[in-house]
Amino acid sequence: MTTPAVSWLVGAFNAEATLARALDSILAQTFRDFEVLVLDDGSTDGTFAVLERFATRDDRIVPMRFAENRGLTAALIQTHDRARGRFVARLDADDEASPDRLAVQLAHHRALGEPERVLIGSGALWLRDGMRRDLLNPTGHDRIAVALPVVNCFVHSSLLFTNTPDLRYRAAFRLAQDYDLALRALDTGVRLANVPELLVTRHDDAQTIGQTRAVEQSAFAAAARALHRARRDGAAEFDVDALLQTTAIQREAERVTLDYQFEHALTFEDWQLARRRLVTRWRRFGPKAGQLKRYLGARGRGVIAGLANH
Fold first, then answer.
1. How confident is the prediction for the chain on average, in pLDDT?
2. Which of 121, 136, 264, 278 has the most CB atoms within 10 Å of its CB?
């Protein structure tokens, strides 16, 4: 059996309605030297039947299964343990990869001089309630290195990274596992980049983790930042679960969640939600510079656009 260049990692939980779309987008890649490791994470719907159907159709797809739901991080660790490729590519079971995604990211790796350790993301097309938005992040290593300790500037579903022992997901990060991975990559000298193209389509709905477990996700992200600061300062790492219980992390998680939901509401013109999050943020933590001005400006543009369309 030949060793593939790329190993896709896909965790799927109750993804019967979306998994076929995700796998079709992988199989449509113009770069075709890959395997696809898909783990059904204890689904209670027809997810595994969809997976078996695709595995019969294409032997590059490797079906795996947990008897009960253990979460995305456990699914990624399990699939990564089986990965044989030089590179690992991520895709969520409800997202889509553009046909040239792998080709573009691998070409970017070559353009960087083929570093031995690399983590490359891309821009994304963000879909919600019939609305489309472009999501672009810093592209070069230096700009990413400045931004990353403050906010995750990678789209998890867009990641391509070298399959090396130091670039692994950690079980302690049940959420924000990609942010912890990226910060550790930064701290250990991995070359970071984002391709300035929309190579992934994200489908955002009420069941997305970022929507249903927003505060918990933010708490894990805050813990990842705290551990990054500890490594930077030469201190020993803290126990993640103990860190999550501290008042400082819990307050940071609440503040960051309010700010994220405010930005998300502005992006998709949900003015009522934006106003509620703005008011709650000010009451709990005080005003954040520029938020009221941005809300009023975006709201005004939305009203003008609405009038123009009638």
1. 90
2. 121
Cα separation, 246 vs 147, in Å, equals: 25
pTM of this structure = 0.88
Give the CB-side neighbour count of residue 62, counting CA atoms within 13 A.
16
User: 257: which residues sit within 8 A by CB, 6+ positions away?
Assistant: 214, 215, 217, 218
Tokens (6 digits) for 292: 């009221």
Which of 174, 180, 73 lies closest to 119, judged by CA?
A: 180
Average pLDDT over residues 56-69: 97
Residues 6 or more apart from 96 whose CB is under 8 A from it? Answer: 21, 22, 25, 200, 201, 203
Residue with tokens 């076929």: 20
Query: What are the structural domain ranges in the chain?
Result: 6-203, 213-308
Judged against a pLDDT cut of 90, whether residue 257 lies above it is answered with no
Task: Say yes or no to pLDDT of 253 above 50.
Answer: yes
Superfamily of chain region 6-203: Spore Coat Polysaccharide Biosynthesis Protein SpsA; Chain A (3.90.550.10)
Q: Is 68 left (phi over 0), alpha (psi -120 to 50) or beta?
A: beta
Q: Residue 79: name the closest of 94, 68, 91, 95 by CA.
A: 91
